[in-house]
Amino acid sequence: MHQTFDAALGIDLLHANQTGADHNRAHFDEWGITCFNLMSSPGAGKTALLERTLAGLHHDLRMAVIEGDMTTELDADRLRQYGIPVIAINTGRSCHLDAQMVAGGIHTFSHTYDPTQFDLVLVENVGNLVCPAEFEVGEHAKVALLSITEGEDKPLKYPIMFQEADCLLLTKMDLAPYLDISLERITANVRQMNPHAAILPVSAKTGEGLEAWFSWVRHRCQAQSSALAQPLQR
Amino acid sequence: MHQTFDAALGIDLLHANQTGADHNRAHFDEWGITCFNLMSSPGAGKTALLERTLAGLHHDLRMAVIEGDMTTELDADRLRQYGIPVIAINTGRSCHLDAQMVAGGIHTFSHTYDPTQFDLVLVENVGNLVCPAEFEVGEHAKVALLSITEGEDKPLKYPIMFQEADCLLLTKMDLAPYLDISLERITANVRQMNPHAAILPVSAKTGEGLEAWFSWVRHRCQAQSSALAQPLQR
Q1: Residue A129 within a domain
Q2: So what's the pLDDT on residue B130?
Q3: Which of A77, A106, B61, B149 could be stapled to A149 by a disulfide with Cβ–Cβ 3.0 to 4.6 Å?
């Protein structure tokens, strides 16, 4: 975090962001869409995971992607090859997506496509293990990725991301034989921060663990649909 | 960047940070110390590089470390084993070191040790490829690390860090045989952003490239000393 209170406007920026995120989520709920916010360090493999996910789940779910990058549409172009709507947002100098930027993406999406025809919107955040964790964008679940090349200690050193995650993917498992790391110690460090998150070791390269990830996605989408179909119990 | 203008205080935070950084640098100059600011994504190997550097250069340079982390002193404790002063700064929720935090570290350092007895202060920033690049802390050179596991496109996607770097270390070269990357393409992407930075492929694990890094460090420290010894030409 750099600064969260704007005295000129008299608003707490995190609070204003939360209001915007709730508004975005209300739109997703209205359209019957589940939204995930994918976050990680740069190069942990968010786009590679999305490529595998779009290929692996396109028979089960109608998907779209909101793609956040400081500059370039390199990742957006990779994902457009899967024939799904990809809305690119360039954040400029900003180190994270915020609710207002994603609202712009949702606006473009819902005016270009019929949003009620979709099941899942995957938001790929800017690569940053710190700031995106504090700015909700309207997601129903936060998915964090940690590449095992980053080392065992990251959950302890960057606690907020690991505390906030609903699902943690340990990526690049194909490199495990060449690294001095222990999956048990990484898992223990994650558990110190977060007793409940699903922890899924995966490799987008070999396909290891992807079925478990696809199951998690399907389950969360079904749970979200059921919750919306259910009238509120008071 | 989240927000750089504090309307209540009526100050531009980046401008105020620059003033603080200049102040820190004046202290380093007065003491004959060269200062490097080490920056990268989480887990690119800043601490491993520092371990190798402290071991490899301790006959040539008297070194100290200012170690920035959101929480924990895990990295500081690793480096203390090399018998040098390590000043730990916990940034809390902040995603980067700023000049004021480092001023606090310099204060502790100069009151605990005789700063004129040192040649080089290495500042290890919070792992983040975005924000630290915009906040000078008083360094004479910016050293950026990019782990080759992060992919070839990072210089294009996170331009500010690569534009600002004086030296770019391509780390974890020992993993090159297991990755689908080309050193030529990474270098070409860096050069699009920065025509002048030294680009040094290294592996802290195997020692590959470390002599070139040590030479770069020695050269920069000598150049800095010579510049300070020289009276200003007007």
Answers
A1: yes
A2: 94
A3: B149
Q: Show the domain range for B217.
A: 2-229
**B4-55: pLDDT as tens digits:** 655 555 568 889 999 999 999 999 999 999 999 999 999 999 999 999 999 9
Size of interface A-B (CB pairs under 8 A): 141
Give the pLDDT band of residue A126 (cuts 50, 70, 90): very high
Specify the DSSP class assigned to residue B115.
G
Enumerate the residues of chain B whose CB falls inside 8 A of the CB of residue A93. Answer: 1, 134, 160
Q: B42-67 burial, b for 16+ CB within 10 Å, e for fewer?
A: bbbbbbbbbbbbbebbeeebebbbbb
Contacts of B160 in chain A (CB under 8 A): 70, 93
Kindly state the tokens that stand for B228.
């300070």
Nearest CA distance, A214 vs chain B (angstrom) = 24
pTM, rounded to two decimals: 0.94
Q: Which residue has the tokens 């109608």?
A: A62
CA closest to A151 among chain B residues = B43
Look at A3 and B3 and tell me if their CB atoms are within 8 Å: yes
Q: Which of B2, B43, B157 sits opposite A41 (nearest CB)?
A: B43
pLDDT digits (tens, 9 = 90+) for A22-60: 999 999 999 999 999 999 999 999 999 999 999 999 999
Q: Chain B: residue nearest A3 by CA?
A: B3
For residue B75, which residues of chain A lie inside 8 Å, CB to CB? 157
Total of domains in chain A: 1
Q: What is the pLDDT of residues B63-111, one digit of tens each?
A: 999 999 999 999 999 999 999 999 999 999 899 999 999 999 999 999 9
Instruction: Specify the DSSP element, H or E, that contains B74.
Output: helix B74-80
Please report which helix (H) or strand (E) contains residue A143, including its range.
Answer: strand A141-147
Examine residue A234 and state whether it is found in any structural domain, yes or no: no
Q: What DSSP letter does each residue of A85-133 carry, written as one string?
A: -EEEEE-TT-SS--HHHHHHHHHHHHHHS-GGG-SEEEEE--S-SSGGG
Q: Classify each residue of A5-37 as buried b or exposed e, where b means 16 or more C-beta atoms within 10 Å of its C-beta.
A: ebeeeeeebeebbeebbeebbebbbebbbbbbb
Instruction: Say if B165 falls within a structural domain.
Output: yes
What is the number of residues in chain B?
A: 234
Which residues on chain A are in Cβ contact (under 8 Å) with B174? 178
Give the angle A172-A195-A166 at the CA atoms, nearest 5°.
Answer: 60
Question: Residue A203 carries which side chain, given as an amino acid letter?
Answer: S
User: Which residue on chain B is closest to A172 by alpha carbon?
Assistant: B149
What does the pLDDT read at residue B230?
74
CB contact under 8 A, A153 and B74: yes
In a domain? residue B234 = no
- The CATH number of the domain holding residue A39 is 3.40.50.300
